[in-house]
Design goal:
This is Peroxidase. With about 300 residues, the chain is mainly α. The protein contains 15 helices and 2 strands.
């Protein structure tokens, strides 16, 4: 689906000629590369979450809805998200600037998609055309998030199935997993891998144990970089790490463990261009995953709550 198709399905509320200048204005008023710098300087960015979630509600900004004690429980507290999603203040700031220019016209979903793309570019990664015209959801489901988001203990078959159920190929899945070239993960997500798995570099596993003790509940929230080589650069080092059995999560190393995706990992490890091209194509597909358009949903005034 082309960008103009999404805009057209928004019933003419805005056109691409309107929204693109709005984003350009915000960029001019931000420090260079700071679209998402508040996220990229923090552990586990929304870019990571966006790329690793084959979830039908990604393109409607449901993940931005904050919990309301006693009345609403959103996706931010879902097991794969808790302690990982950060930088909501950055998105809120961008939304405030956009609202000052063009009130209730640009959705939080479009802001999140463009910010994700620009953050990747700022970190040295590829660019891609972001289809515009999404609307925001009026609800969120922690249960759906828990069921749909791939946990760190998934094996290769599980990963291929989870992404395949949303229309992604195995190559798409491996490319989107490359978002783990930035960010960090909590000890509770990689403890089993470093203590119980055999497909891990012994020295690498040993280096993580001081920060992630074996007893459950001890140091659960301690962080380690998903890419120990270049944790703040969007490159293909994630894949070269896998070749050396230095994947932080069990699900990471499953991509290179004698299975059907080994050759794809080798290809991306040897060619940043091949990875960048596949990642950009998969992100376009991700952006088109069940968007709300026309009269569906709403354009939120504040990204963390419904109107």
């Amino acid at each position: 689906m082309a960008s103009r198709d999404l805009a057209a399905r928004r019933s003419g509320i805005f056109s691409r000629s309107t929204i693109v200048p709005v984003f350009s204005h915000v960029r001019r008023n931000e420090r260079p590369g700071s679209w998402f710098c508040g996220l990229t300087k923090k552990p586990s960015t929304n870019v990571l979450s966006l790329c690793r979630q084959p979830h039908g509600h990604l393109s409607d900004a449901s993940v931005l809805l904050a919990d309301i004690p006693g009345s609403f429980t959103g996706e931010q507290g879902a097991l794969p998200n808790v302690g990982s999603l950060r930088g909501f203040d950055v998105i809120a700031n961008i939304k405030a600037q956009v609202e000052a220019i063009c009130k209730q016209t640009v959705s939080c979903a479009d802001i999140l998609a463009v910010a994700a793309r620009d953050s990747v570019v700022a970190l040295g990664g590829p660019s891609w055309t972001v289809p515009l015209g999404r609307r925001d959801s009026t609800t969120a489901s922690q249960t759906l998030a828990n069921n749909d988001l791939p946990p760190p203990f998934f094996n290769l078959t599980d990963l291929i199935s989870a992404f395949g159920n949303k229309g992604f190929t195995a190559t798409d899945m491996v490319a989107l997993s490359g978002a783990h070239t930035i960010g960090q993960s909590q000890c509770l997500n990689f403890r089993d891998h470093i203590y119980n798995d055999t497909n891990i570099n012994p020295g690498f596993a040993s280096s993580l144990k001081a920060n992630c003790p074996r007893p459950t509940g001890s140091g659960d929230s301690n962080l380690a970089p998903l890419d120990t080589s270049t944790p703040y650069a969007f490159d293909n080092a994630y894949y070269t790490n896998l070749l050396s059995q230095k994947g932080l999560l069990h699900s990471d190393q499953e991509l290179f463990n004698g299975g059907s995706t080994d050759n794809t990992v080798r290809n991306f490890a040897s060619s940043k261009a091949a990875f960048s091209s596949a990642f950009a194509a998969a992100m376009v597909k991700m952006a088109n995953l069940s968007p709300l358009t026309g009269s569906q949903g709403q354009i939120r005034l504040t990204c963390s709550k419904v109107n």
